[in-house]
């Protein structure tokens, strides 16, 4: 199986090409910048490198020259827009194996790759009957490329090795439990238990029993001894989700356990020492709850030694297709499907949608669409009706439509080619506009 390094800053297009090549039995590593690609090249061996001519932190030809200095035998294929074909032809004279013009068809891609590998004497069999080996999704935490995601990853890296109590604040569906798991897995407690508790689902009358356990016969219905969440998490991490839903009485019990690091099962006179790290999460402003008297101030400060903001999907718009590709891969594995990617129409719909349910809504939407898909790509018809009902309406004439290219050109004309202002008119971020300019070869 030939190993290919793919370098393309357009996440949606990169993931689409990655899926296509994987389906054709290639081992593909996708990167989104020259810096990331250089790091991969240092620690891995590749049979072929495919790079976009225009990258956010480098020029494709310059990058190719740097690669050739250390890996002269690895063929490099350039991807270009039509306006850059002449530049690509010159690049071949300087060592590029070949170039591909965008937009291109699948057969052209396979032909160029096959020829490039043959030239480098690394012929790899890609028999149509060969069963595709699907990559396993082992890491639930996706490191995005948006500024919000980079800040989140930085905070996780900083706080994980410590024993500090962490409060994760964010809207429902933003992946707060995934963040908590990532903190645990990057800490010295990673080989011990991680216990997740949904505080909103525990009746206040049973909270003490759930948290600290109970002895048989200590109350009606206690037919056997029970180990509580705190004892089960001893030596590890306990994650209390939606902690703001605890009653005032339960807050007092929790505060005592955190202060003394001792628990007492219901019906017992014996205290049990516990060594735990506590991570909590909430989708409400606990500071306002403290002011209202609904949440104890001393408990708030006890759980909030370090706070992390879990960004909404709108805040991580640049990561949208990265998460989409991740959830598609998970859905393919769970449903035994092999969908390659998303149609351009679906990608546009995704980018213009507000995602009130955040990552959870995106994951559910993609899983359903994967199940319904009969072809290689997820099409508009597989999206749920509710998805369109919840789509925000706008009276702005510049909303993207089927005539997307013309709409973009009109917006650029109205703003005297000011891309920032054009993006505002189109109700998309500047990065999305940049990607669409590349897609339609608009200079």
In short:
With 443 residues, this protein is an alpha/beta fold. Helix content is 43%, strand content 14%.
Key phrases:
443 residues; alpha/beta; five-stranded parallel β-sheet; 43% helix
Overview of the structural elements:
Helices cover 43% and strands 14% of the residues. The chain has 443 residues and is an alpha/beta fold. The strands form five sheets. It has a five-stranded parallel β-sheet, sandwiched between helices. Helix 1 packs parallel to helix 13 (320-335) and helix 13 packs across helix 15. It is elongated, with a radius of gyration of 26 Å. Residues 121-139 and 390-399 have low confidence and may be disordered.
What is the fold's blueprint, element by element?
Blueprint lengths: L2 E5 L3 H13 L3 E5 L2 H10 L4 E5 L1 E2 L2 E2 H11 L5 E6 L3 H9 L4 E5 L3 H14 L27 H13 L6 E5 L5 H10 L8 E5 L8 H6 L16 H4 L4 E5 L6 H13 L1 E2 L8 E2 L3 E6 L3 H7 L4 H7 L2 E5 L9 H16 L5 E2 L1 H9 L5 H15 L4 E2 L6 H5 L14 H11 L4 H8 L3 H10 L4
Parallel strand pairs: 1-2, 1-3, 3-6, 6-7, 8-13, 8-14, 9-10, 10-13, 15-16
Antiparallel strand pairs: 4-5, 11-12
Helix pairs in contact: 1-13, 13-15, 17-18, 18-19
Which whole number gives the mean pLDDT? 84
Q: Number of helical segments?
A: 19
Helix amount: 40-55%
Outline the low-pLDDT stretches. 121-139, 390-399
* Number of strand elements: 16
Query: Which class of secondary structure composition applies to the elements?
Result: alpha/beta
Q: Can you tell me the overall shape?
A: elongated
| Beta-strand percent range | 5-15%
